[in-house]
Amino acid sequence: MFILHITNRLYVKSEGMIMPDVYRALGDSTRRRILSMLKQGDKTQKEIVEAFNISQPAIKKHLNVLLEEGIISESLNGKYRIYSLNLITLQNAYREMLQFIGELLDDQIVSLKNYVEKGEFRDEDD
Description:
By secondary structure, the chain is α+β, with helices and mostly antiparallel strands. It has 5 helices and 6 strands.
C-alpha cells in the first residue's frame, strides 16, 4: 500500500485501486449526519440544508467533500440537486479499513506471541 497525491488530495492506492480518503469524509460530525440522512434515502440539497442549523454554503462545502471522495453522488432533477449514497464505494472503503486494521493487529499479535513465548520483542524496523 502506498500514498498517492493528486491535486492536493490524499488517496490510498491498494491492489491497483485508488481508494477515497474515508477519514477525511467521515472526520466531521456534520458529514456523518448527512450520510445518516442519505442512508434513509435520496435527499435534495434543500432537505439536507433544512435538517441543520448552519448555512446553505456551509452544507454545500460538506457535500463537496463527500462528492470529492466518491462517498455520495449528485444528480439533477429539474432544478433540484439530488444526493445519494455510493454504497459500493462505502463497502470497498470498509473492507480496506478492516484489512488495514487486521494487518496492524496481526503485527501486534506476533510481537506479543514472541514476547510471551521467547521473551523476545520484535523491533518495528525488522
